[in-house]
Structures
1.
Amino acid sequence: MNMDKKQYKKYAKAHAPKSPILKNCLRAFFVGGAICALGEGLLHVYGDLCQLDKENSAALVSVTLIFLSILLTAIGVYDNIAKFAGAGTLVPITGFANAVASPAIDSKAEGLILGVGAKIFTVAGPVLLYGTVSGALYGVIYYIYTLVR
């Protein structure tokens, strides 16, 4: 079957499954919003009921969301939520915790060194690497800018 680019593009478009964009967006919106609402609720629980200041309450909210994300990843629930909600589960702290915990859990059978230790950052590693490098680069540029100014 010889096709030029236009014919192939038309063929591929005709055979590609249709994506329910509105449904996917609504699912992501509501699940992501529910995760954020949970965080806000925890902030009020820690602040009002536990009588903690805002800084300590915020730290405990982060720790709690990370713990819940890892726990749900470990028991296989987080993946089902992610399949349903898509990008809604990528709320930064829970999505990042899942991205670190999932490869660690999957490679546990290979041992602590060559399994967990070697593969824990396979998903999150590039984010950490390029985030750190771009942060350092920005710092250097900002420092030079303040010297010149």
2.
Amino acid sequence: MIKTFTNGILRENPTLRLVLGTCPTLAITTAALNGVGMGIAATLVLVCSNAAISLLRKVIPEQVRIPAYITIIAGFVTVVQMLVKAYAQSIDETLGIYLPLIVVNCIILGRAEMFASKNPVLPSVLDGLGMGIGFTAALVTMGAIRELIGAGTLFGITVTAGSIEPMVLFILPPGGFFVFGMLIALANKLSGGGNKKEFGCMGCAGCPSAKTCSEANGGGGNE
């Protein structure tokens, strides 16, 4: 149970390790508060849809499972969107079209297909919660970095106070791609993604291309 919950936070972080949901990640992370809003909304939908799909997994026919999953997810997204419009209008205006587009977010549909449809309710809820926390953490971290460097503020509060000139590039798309790439590299390093032994690598001797590979033959070229 604990592993199911913690997997989505770092080792299988949906944004930084699985590289899912990149469109809202790059679009709304110009400020840390945006990341909080999108992350909480997505987490609520993830947990509720995973629970519902797990409960109905033996009832939904195999032939129509994807349309059924999307219908269930769309129902929860509609509820979340109505709550945001009622109680957090500023976040609703900031997130714009990306809030209803949670319906087709690869993270949510992916967890429904790969986990919730094959597991009981409690593990599915924990999986959705872990993935949601991982997604939220990635959004908030990325938004905080871009906001701090690009505007000199953090959660709307001025931090640099004119001592450092903000680099507006970081709140523009190029800055978003740069920060995203750096965070992916950091997540890979922390989770041991660069360790070949983790993936069962047998080295050059076990590679079918060893005979034509310059590295296997003592050269310095690429494999």
